[in-house]
Write a structure and sequence with these properties.
mainly beta, four-stranded antiparallel β-sheet, three-stranded antiparallel β-sheet, 10 strands
């Protein structure tokens, strides 16, 4: 989750616990320093990005070559681009993932696809997405 400009991951189930306070959170990425003012040029530059995280659960059941697996798919908003992705699983469990890869669904929507062996443990997938509504500011769809 995002809090105070930094990204945090819960290390245990918690409700209404502020990230960074106590042992229930690990820092994923800390907020950087404010950079110098730009020249105000053509408006190009980096797109806004956002993180999509699936619900923490066992995932959906999927059959691949006759074997049952569990999957999570984290989808970007329609028309946006996936930049990266991954997953979180309980580090105390010895779960082996089958694959973790970018995804483009049949409608062209992008995201991240993760598949684990058939497990009763909970885990989640995440996708780092770029907002492409900035067309006209130096970005293309």
């Amino acid at each position: 989750m995002s809090h105070g400009g930094s990204a945090w991951i819960a290390t245990s189930d918690n409700i209404n616990q502020e990230p960074g306070v106590g042992a229930d959170w690990d820092l994923l990425a800390s907020r950087g320093e404010t950079g110098p003012a730009g020249s105000g040029g053509s408006g190009g530059g980096f797109p806004d990005t956002y993180l999509v995280v699936t619900e923490t659960s066992q995932g959906s059941t999927v059959q691949i070559d006759g074997t049952t697996y569990r999957e999570h798919i984290a989808l970007c908003d329609a028309g946006d681009k996936v930049l990266s992705g991954g997953f979180w699983k309980n580090p105390r469990r010895n779960l082996v993932y089958q694959f973790s890869e970018p995804l483009m669904d049949v409608n062209g929507q992008q995201g991240w696809h993760v598949v684990f062996g058939n497990t009763s443990d909970v885990w989640y997938a995440m996708a780092l997405c770029a907002d492409t509504t900035l067309v006209g500011r130096g970005l293309s769809r």
